[in-house]
Amino acid sequence: MIERPNLLVVCGKNKKRSRTAESIFKNDPRFAIRSVGLSSKSERKISENDLNWSDLVLVMETDHRQKIKKQYRNLDLPTIKVLHIPDDYEYMDEELVDLLNDRINEEFQIAFGT
Fold it and tell me: Is 68 within a domain?
Protein backbone atom coordinates (compact mmCIF):
# COMPACT_ATOMS: atom_id res chain seq x y z
CA MET A 1 0.00 0.00 0.00
CA ILE A 2 1.33 3.37 -1.01
CA GLU A 3 1.41 5.68 2.01
CA ARG A 4 -0.22 8.70 0.35
CA PRO A 5 -0.98 7.98 -3.30
CA ASN A 6 -1.00 10.58 -6.06
CA LEU A 7 -4.22 10.93 -8.08
CA LEU A 8 -4.22 12.61 -11.46
CA VAL A 9 -7.65 13.78 -12.67
CA VAL A 10 -7.99 14.42 -16.39
CA CYS A 11 -10.66 16.06 -18.54
CA GLY A 12 -10.70 17.85 -21.88
CA LYS A 13 -9.48 21.35 -21.07
CA ASN A 14 -8.90 21.38 -17.28
CA LYS A 15 -11.49 24.14 -16.86
CA LYS A 16 -14.52 22.44 -15.29
CA ARG A 17 -14.54 18.74 -14.33
CA SER A 18 -10.94 18.00 -13.37
CA ARG A 19 -10.46 21.45 -11.80
CA THR A 20 -13.58 20.87 -9.69
CA ALA A 21 -12.18 17.51 -8.57
CA GLU A 22 -8.87 19.09 -7.58
CA SER A 23 -10.70 21.87 -5.71
CA ILE A 24 -12.90 19.56 -3.64
CA PHE A 25 -10.15 17.03 -2.80
CA LYS A 26 -7.08 19.31 -2.51
CA ASN A 27 -6.98 19.07 1.29
CA ASP A 28 -7.88 15.38 1.53
CA PRO A 29 -5.31 13.70 3.82
CA ARG A 30 -5.68 10.32 2.05
CA PHE A 31 -4.06 11.37 -1.22
CA ALA A 32 -2.46 14.15 -3.23
CA ILE A 33 -4.44 15.31 -6.26
CA ARG A 34 -3.54 17.18 -9.42
CA SER A 35 -5.74 18.10 -12.38
CA VAL A 36 -4.82 18.43 -16.05
CA GLY A 37 -6.47 18.55 -19.46
CA LEU A 38 -5.77 16.79 -22.75
CA SER A 39 -6.37 19.72 -25.10
CA SER A 40 -3.62 22.06 -26.23
CA LYS A 41 -5.99 24.79 -24.99
CA SER A 42 -5.94 23.38 -21.44
CA GLU A 43 -5.29 25.58 -18.42
CA ARG A 44 -2.71 22.93 -17.52
CA LYS A 45 -1.91 20.34 -20.19
CA ILE A 46 -1.07 16.74 -19.27
CA SER A 47 2.64 15.89 -19.38
CA GLU A 48 4.89 12.88 -19.02
CA ASN A 49 5.85 14.24 -15.57
CA ASP A 50 2.20 14.18 -14.47
CA LEU A 51 1.87 10.54 -15.50
CA ASN A 52 5.15 9.57 -13.83
CA TRP A 53 3.99 11.35 -10.64
CA SER A 54 0.62 9.60 -10.46
CA ASP A 55 -0.33 6.28 -8.89
CA LEU A 56 -3.85 6.38 -10.31
CA VAL A 57 -5.22 8.35 -13.26
CA LEU A 58 -8.93 9.22 -13.30
CA VAL A 59 -10.35 10.36 -16.64
CA MET A 60 -13.85 11.65 -17.29
CA GLU A 61 -14.56 9.83 -20.57
CA THR A 62 -13.45 6.61 -22.28
CA ASP A 63 -11.83 8.47 -25.18
CA HIS A 64 -9.63 10.37 -22.69
CA ARG A 65 -8.08 7.04 -21.64
CA GLN A 66 -7.52 6.09 -25.30
CA LYS A 67 -5.81 9.41 -26.03
CA ILE A 68 -3.45 9.03 -23.06
CA LYS A 69 -2.59 5.43 -23.99
CA LYS A 70 -1.92 6.43 -27.59
CA GLN A 71 0.03 9.61 -26.86
CA TYR A 72 2.14 8.07 -24.07
CA ARG A 73 2.45 4.46 -25.29
CA ASN A 74 6.20 4.62 -24.60
CA LEU A 75 5.55 5.09 -20.85
CA ASP A 76 4.80 2.52 -18.18
CA LEU A 77 1.41 4.07 -17.40
CA PRO A 78 -0.34 3.89 -14.05
CA THR A 79 -3.86 2.42 -13.87
CA ILE A 80 -6.33 4.63 -15.74
CA LYS A 81 -9.98 4.52 -14.61
CA VAL A 82 -12.91 6.15 -16.39
CA LEU A 83 -15.37 8.11 -14.20
CA HIS A 84 -18.00 8.43 -16.99
CA ILE A 85 -18.82 12.09 -16.29
CA PRO A 86 -19.91 13.96 -19.44
CA ASP A 87 -18.91 17.55 -20.15
CA ASP A 88 -22.33 18.88 -19.09
CA TYR A 89 -21.35 20.86 -16.02
CA GLU A 90 -19.82 24.17 -15.03
CA TYR A 91 -16.93 24.49 -12.56
CA MET A 92 -18.09 23.58 -9.01
CA ASP A 93 -21.64 22.69 -10.21
CA GLU A 94 -23.44 21.03 -7.27
CA GLU A 95 -24.35 17.89 -9.24
CA LEU A 96 -20.77 17.63 -10.56
CA VAL A 97 -19.39 17.90 -7.01
CA ASP A 98 -21.69 15.05 -5.90
CA LEU A 99 -20.71 12.85 -8.87
CA LEU A 100 -16.99 13.47 -8.34
CA ASN A 101 -17.25 12.79 -4.60
CA ASP A 102 -19.00 9.47 -5.17
CA ARG A 103 -16.88 8.22 -8.06
CA ILE A 104 -13.45 9.36 -6.86
CA ASN A 105 -14.06 7.93 -3.38
CA GLU A 106 -15.23 4.67 -4.96
CA GLU A 107 -12.21 4.38 -7.28
CA PHE A 108 -9.84 5.29 -4.43
CA GLN A 109 -11.42 2.55 -2.27
CA ILE A 110 -11.09 -0.03 -5.08
CA ALA A 111 -7.48 0.91 -5.92
CA PHE A 112 -6.08 1.38 -2.41
CA GLY A 113 -8.57 -0.40 -0.14
CA THR A 114 -8.95 2.43 2.36
Answer: yes
Q: Which residues pair with 37 in a beta bridge?
A: 11, 45
Residues of 71-96 as b/e, b for ≥16 C-beta within 10 angstroms?
A: ebeeeeebebbbbebeeebeeeeeeb
- Is position 1 within any domain? no
Task: Compute the distance between CA of residue 44 and CA of residue 47 in angstroms, rounded to an integer.
Answer: 9
DSSP-assigned letters across all residues of 67-93: HHHHHTTTS-PPEEEE----S---TT-
The model's pTM: 0.96
Name the domain count of the chain.
1
Q: What is the pLDDT of residues 5-24, one digit of tens each?
A: 999 999 999 999 999 999 99
